[in-house]
Amino acid sequence: MMSEPKVYAANRKGLIQFLLIGMLLLPVAVFLLDREAFAARPYMLLPLLAPIVLIAWIYFGTVYWLQDGRLRYKSGPWKGAVAVESITLIEEGKTSWVGMKPALARNGLVIKYNRFDEIYIAPESNQEVIADLLSINRNIQVVKR
After folding, report:
1. With a threshold of 0.85, does the pTM exceed it?
2. C-alpha dihedral, 105 to 82 to 133 to 86, nearest 10°
3. Residues in contact with 26: Cβ distance below 8 Å, sequence separation at least 6, in sequence order
4. Please, what are the domains in the chain?
5. How far is Cα 21 from Cα 46, in angstroms, rounded to an integer?
């Protein structure tokens, strides 16, 4: 039997907003620079739209949730899960620049699990996620950065 999931919204502050706006303005700027070329061949805008679709999918489709003893995440086309019992350390307020990052903001949570695995998430409330993870696995060490 599956338990009801507890959902955490992603923090959407920071660079991702400027990236999305920039990607939206790029096709408009290119179109305005050479209207005649695009009027004759409108399909030339399609390669410019593909990155916009991907970034928008990531922006609007990033979410985290706890269900059946797993911390699950989805960020655009990427999704996965981490067994809460395998989590050993959470670094709060840190930003990871390498590895798996289904996150849209800085100062999130670096979650270390198994022996060498880690994932970076950035929920709206770091404290709420930490409290819920600790309620499942009291052996998690929490470090503030």
Report:
1. no
2. -130
3. 48, 52
4. 7-145 (2.30.29.30)
5. 18
Dihedral of CA 135/137/143/145: which sign?
negative
Residue keyed to tokens 């590895």: 99
Sequence letter at residue 98: V
Residues of 128-143 as b/e, b for ≥16 C-beta within 10 angstroms? ebbeebeeeeeebeee
As a whole number of angstroms, the distance between CA 22 and CA 8 comes to 27
Better-predicted residue by pLDDT, 14 or 141 = 141
Cα separations in angstroms, 96 against 24, 48, 58, 78, 105? 27, 29, 18, 17, 10
**Residue bearing tokens 């819920």:** 132
Residue 93 in this model has a pLDDT that exceeds 80? yes
